[in-house]
Amino acid sequence: xxxxxxxxxxxxxxxxxxxxxxxxxxxxxxxxxxxxxxxxxxxxxxxxxxxxxxxxxxxxxxxxxxxxxxxxxxxxxxxxxxxxxxxxxxxxxxxxxxxxxxxxxxxxxxxxxxxxxxxxxxxxxxxxxxxxxxxxxxxxxxxxxxxxx
Length: 149
Known about the structure:
Layout: H1 2-17, H2 21-30, H3 37-48, H4 55-67, H5 74-86, H6 90-103, H7 108-126, H8 131-134
């Protein structure tokens, strides 16, 4: 009841004050600065390379990246893997690889092999297995389809 009343009041205020969604969008566009892809990569590489970073901060950075509409570059992925290694969290490193694979979306057949090719030396250096080496790419307990029986 209160939510409905508050919604109606907000709509009435919007009409009297004259604030439209296009004005709100224009204000949001003016906020902040544009940053190039290189600057973006450097910012996250620097974030993961910080001295004294802990597991929570690594997870925060990874969740922020995976929440964006992009596939992280190999440099960022490597930086995240190195941060996981510094805190000795292999589970987080594998989750990071899974999240990056997921972000490839319908381009998994082309993007994910490219990413693996670029980050394989780092994976070998850090001793982190790939998802395929662990067998996590195939469901372990999946039931057979009833149509295949």
